[in-house]
Amino acid sequence: MTFAAECLQGQAILITGGLGAIGKVVVTKLLAHAARVAVNDVLPEEAAEKWMKAAGFASERCVYVQADVTTAPGAQALVERTVQSFGRLDAALCHAGMTHSAPILDYGEEDWDRIMRVNLKSAFLVAQAAARAMLARGTQGKIIFTSSWVQDTPWPDITPYNVSKSGMKMLMRGMARELAGKGIRVNSIAPGIVAVGMAKRQWDTEPDYRRRAEKAIPLGYMQPPESVAEAFLFLCSHASDYMTGATLVVDGGCSLYPMD
Predict the structure, then answer these.
(1) Cα distance between residue 143 and residue 172, in whole Å
(2) Dihedral sign (CA 103, 70, 248, 193)
(3) CA-based Rg of the chain, rounded to a whole angstrom?
(4) Packing angle, helices 159-179 and 122-136, rounded to 10
(5) Do residues 235 and 144 make contact, with C-beta atoms less than 8 angstroms apart?
(6) Phi, psi of 35 (to 5 degrees)
(7) Which residues contact 38 (CB under 8 A, 6 or more apart)?
(8) Would residue 191 be called left, alpha or beta, if left means φ above 0 and alpha means ψ between -120 and 50 degrees?
(9) Which of 108, 111, 127, 169, CA to CA, is 20 to 30 A from 158?
C-alpha cells in the first residue's frame, strides 16, 4: 500500500461520475484509506446502491447522491447532501466526463454542447458550490479536477473533448488563484490513455487506433485505472497541502511530444 491506510481518516469527499469505469476505482481507493465518500452519478438510486453493496463499499462511510450536476441546483444538492451526511466537506473531486469520437468536420452542434456541458460546465458548478460550502464552514479544503493529457497535446477526432479539458485547465488555475488566500487548494489530474471504457474498446477492436495509441505512450502500455486513483489519493492527502494551481500529469509520458 503506497499510503498509510488511515491517511484520509475523517475526511469527507464527494466525487462526480463516481460509478464510471475510473470513478469506481477511485472510490474504492478512497474508502480503503478511511475517507467518507459521497458518490454522485446519474444512475437510479436503487441500481447504484445495489452495485455499491456488491462492491463492498462501507455503507457507514459511503452514500450515493443521484443528481444532474450539469445544473446549478443539481450541483448544490450534491454538496448539501454531502455536508448533511458527514457534517463537512473536505475535498470535491470534479470527475464526471464523457467523450465522443468524430472528425471535427462531422461534429454536430448538439455533440459539442453536450461535451461542454458534461465536462466543463458541471466541473465549474460543482467546484463553485463546494468552495462556497467550504468557506461557509471555515474549511481549508481541496478541489480536484479530472483533466487529461490532451489539454495540451490534441488527440485526433476528439477535438471538442480536447477543448473542454484545456478550458478545465484554465478554470483550475483561475480558481486556484482566487481561492488560495482563503486556504482552498485547487489542482487537477491529467491521466493518459486509460485501459477502460472507450479507449480500451478501441485498443482491442481498432488496429489503426491501437497503432496510434502505442506510438503515443512512451512507457509502452495502457494506463491502469489504479494509477489515476493513486493520484487522487495523493492530492486528497496532506502530502499535497503545499500544491495549488498545478496539474499532476500521470500519463505514461503521452504529453512528452506531439502526435504525428
Answers:
(1) 9
(2) negative
(3) 18
(4) 20
(5) yes
(6) -75, 160
(7) 12, 13, 14, 15, 62, 63, 64, 65, 78, 81, 82, 85, 86
(8) beta
(9) 127
Distance of CA 37 to the CA centre of its chain: 14
Question: What is the distance, to the nearest Å, from the Cα of residue 210 to the centroid of all Cα atoms in its chain?
Answer: 25
DSSP state of 202: H
Paired with 62 in beta bridges are 37
How do residues 90-140 score in pLDDT, each as one tens digit? Answer: 999 999 999 999 999 999 999 999 999 999 999 999 999 999 999 999 999
CA-based nearest residue to 38, from 79, 97, 95, 73: 79
- The Cα–Cα gap between 69 and 117 comes to 9
Alpha helices in the chain (DSSP H): 21-32, 45-54, 72-86, 109-115, 122-136, 159-179, 197-205, 207-216, 225-236
CA distance 56 to 52: 6
Q: Residue holding cell 480536484?
A: 144
63, β-bridge pairs: 38
Q: What is the DSSP letter of 7?
A: T
Spatial CA neighbour of 37 closest among 54, 59, 67: 59
Q: Which of 64, 107, 161, 209 is catalytic?
A: 161
Strand order of the β-sheet with 36-41 is 62-66, 36-41, 12-15, 91-94, 142-146, 185-191, 247-250
Name the one residue in this structure whose C-alpha cell is 465518500. 37
| DSSP-based helix, strand, coil % in the chain, nearest 5 | 50, 15, 35
Polymer length of the chain: 260
161 is an active site residue: yes
Q: What digits encode the pLDDT tens for the residues 198-231?
A: 889 889 999 988 998 888 999 999 999 999 999 9
